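Work Package 3 (structural annotation) set out to generate three-dimensional models for the target panel prioritized at the project kickoff. During this period the team completed the workflow that converts sequence records into discrete structure tokens, so that structures can be stored uniformly alongside our sequence database. As a representative example, we reproduce one entry of 191 residues exactly as it appears in the project archive.
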Amino acid sequence: MKNPLNKQIVSFLALLFFSSAIICLESCNQDKQSENTDSAQTETITAAWEDSGDWVQKLSLSPNKIIRNTTWGQDFNSIQDSLDLAEAQPVKGKSYTLYFDESDLNFSDITYIPNDQNKLQEITFDIFVDASEDVQPLIEKWKSYLDAKFSASEVNGKKILWTKNKNTRIELENVSTPKDPGIKISFKAAN
């Protein structure tokens, strides 16, 4: 004689099995969609970096990590830059100079700044160009790349800001004077 309780247990186990299978399929699909989104985003960032031009590429080094192959919270003493130290050093941090050509008129000072725990918290670029007509195209190259990597920017007065990324805040400003055309870009840890 068949026990009615056995039928209920078998039905319950079958329902549990099929529910688990459906949940697993949905989870696997979400993981694949997430991987596809991450892969597409990486391709977009890489393409924007490749289109950004020689100066942006030399300054940023690669589209990986935050900028210049560094990450926030990285031990400050582990930062190794192959550039020459800048003539003027900040009170806190280290500054290097990157020359774009032999003229000594097209260059950038790159300053790494630690927090009180000696961890990287900020990187600034003071970029100077020989001719004022070179400033706006350079701003546009940076904007295109940073929009792809850190989400859409917003304009606040004379500054372009990137504030949507949960880890990084970026500020780009045209700081040109009649004698010294250029821009300043600062990358800061968000927290």
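The longest helix spans residues 4-51.
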